[in-house]
Amino acid sequence: MSKNFSDCEAEQEKEVKLCTKPFEPMKSLRLLQINHVNLEGKFELVPAKLKWLQWKGCPLEALPSDFCPQELAVLDLSESRIKRVWGQRWRGGYKLGIGQMAERLLVMNLHGCCNLTVTPDLSGSRVLEKLILERCTGLLEIHKSIRDVHSLLHLNLKDCSNIMEFLDDISGLRRLENLILSGCSKLKELPKDLGSMESLRELLVDGTSIVKLPDSISCLKKLERLGLNDCLSLQNLPISIGKLGSLRELSLNGSALEELPDSIVSLKDLEILSFMRCGSLDVIPDSIGELESLLELLLDGCPIKELASYHWYIIPSEELIKLPDQIGTLKMLEKLEMRNCEMLRFLPDSIGNMLSLTTFILENAIIEELPESIGLLGKLEIFSVNDCKQLSRLPASFGKLKCLRQFLMVGSGVTELPGEFGMLSNLKELKMGKNPYLERLQNMGEHSGLTVLCAEENPKHTVSPTSLSSLSLLQILVAHSCKISGIIPDEFEKLSSLETLELGHNNFCSLPSSLRGLSILKKLSLPNCIELKSLPPLPSSLTHVDVSNCTALEIISDLSNLENLQELRLMNCKQVMDIPGLDCLKSLKRLYMIGCNACYSVINRRLVKVTLKHIRNLSVPGSEIPDWCIQEVPSFSSRKNHDIKGVIICVVISLDQQKQDDFRDRVPAIVDIQAKILRENNPIFTTTLYLLGVPKTHEDQFYLCRYLNFNPLVFMLKDGDKIQVTMRNSPRFSGLELKKYGIHLVFEGDDDTDDDEEESLDETQQSISEKLAKFFSSLCSSDSGSCEDKNVTPEH
């Protein structure tokens, strides 16, 4: 039987009072959780057979002397006010009951007990295996009785920042397997007889002030993990470290290490070796290649200029110029990462001998070509050459990488793909081209673009679509700013596994009708394709479609089959006259259409209840807001039996196109409108409305944001609070004007109506989606000239 009193109510109140009397008849109680509870009464009434007590946030300074469940195995008093665990002391030792309780304890958790100044006297402990004292920041002393707890397996003193000395005699801790002293920043030395912990498997002393490791460390024959990160006073390792025959991980990140002892090559089981941010370490011995089990070598931030290297990360510094030929001897290497190697010019041919390599990350280097031997990496699964701007081609052997699943070359200088590229039969993700937003921020000049999937006249820069269409397992294809132009041929439909297709910032004028055959495509992203004139029928599997800023787009095929579509972006598609099927998109959550002035009146009639049922964000041309919105909530008032479920905010803004600024070209949204909760006229929460789409017209634009009950703008509301909508004090956008705004509160039951006859109901009884639909239809219901009446002029 178990009893839990640490429910949500207790958490909210932080401290609940309970009496011990109700526990008296609970003879079978074994597990008791009373977190943040103030227990009052006679503690002897707590069942004697209790095995597990969790009392986080215990308000007592010590456990009462009459509390003595004799079979207690787990005691969790973490984050408590405890100053000492055991209470009344009798001459000759603790009171009998207390001694019996300590005798059977297996686990004691005092994590975060900041008032504890000395560890408990564990003289009576016989079977204690785990003692957690992490983050006991007030702890000054480790009681000497710990050294005699022969059963102890795990001792955690992490972040006990005031501990200055560890035990001077640890000969009794022969069974200890885990010793964690990380964050004991005042600890300057480890016990000289450290080697007597013959069962130790993990020793973590990260962030301590130790100057050296004792020579006896060589006796830790079972040690598998040694953590010495951020030991700023540790400059050398003892020669005896080479005798740690079981060591698998050695980490000295951020330490003051100046050199490695030659004996390190004796660590034949070592798999992970990490020296990141070791600013004084400038030489790695060539003999490190003898570490036959090494899988990971991490060297980020080390001033090393030449090295023989290993798995997981080689992340050398910016000064790395070359890799030695010996790198090919690392037969066990599985992962090689080299980021920001801005001086690395070439790779040795021997890299093809790294037959176990599965991941190769080479980013922001100045290499001009890859060696032909790259094709020998038969196990390679992930390969990235992102931002290698000087890399102009891929070797023909690239097609031999049969296991390659992910290939990334965004920001590279590659202008053509080899014909053998289509042989990558297991490729699932391909990302290439440029990052147009990053390029704009850096004000970079144009590069010669990758001409993939295009039909240009110059065959030298043309890659046959056949080489990609054979990639039947490809799931993600990203090719931004690749100067893809002309007409994309129908071979495209053979990419039957495609789920994401992103071809933004290209120059093609149409998409193949076979696009509809991509039956599992979920995301289609084509922003800023300024020559795209029509959108063909789309697959019904789509959830996201983005054709924003496609300024030549005129025709969109019927979308009524897209029942799963959640997001549709059409910002600044000023030539679009209609969106057939919009009124059938029953899963739509986000619709962005600012700047689509040509289809203003048609779209307003297509924004029906079905479309608006789940809408969270909406933007369209318009200069009005619903009359059921109010400019300010002067004093929030909760409703009995009807919880607040949401807040709707509507705004109308305009952006003066004559007042140009750099900011509008760098961000995709208006970020100058804010909503605030004020309590007693003091702001307690402020959020910026994410108004996606920056208008390219001076005409008014309408935005709607609906915040649900998990948003702070909703769940933080209390009676008497005020909600305001304002513009940022120093707007980022020049010429931005907040013309109108309104707020509407959504309570439980306000949007639950599914009645088809809802239109005839009184407005106060209508759902939010029905009221929105009536609002939009009213804008253009009078006559065909209603757009002019509303001061919105279509732009052609």
TrEMBL record:
InterPro entries: Leu-rich_rpt, Leu-rich_rpt_typical-subtyp, LRR_dom_sf, LRR_R13L4/SHOC2-like. Keywords: Leucine-rich repeat, Repeat. Gene3D superfamilies: Ribonuclease Inhibitor. This is Disease resistance R13L4/SHOC-2-like LRR domain-containing protein. The keyword Manganese does not apply. The keyword Repeat applies. Residues 350-477 form the Disease resistance R13L4/SHOC-2-like LRR domain.
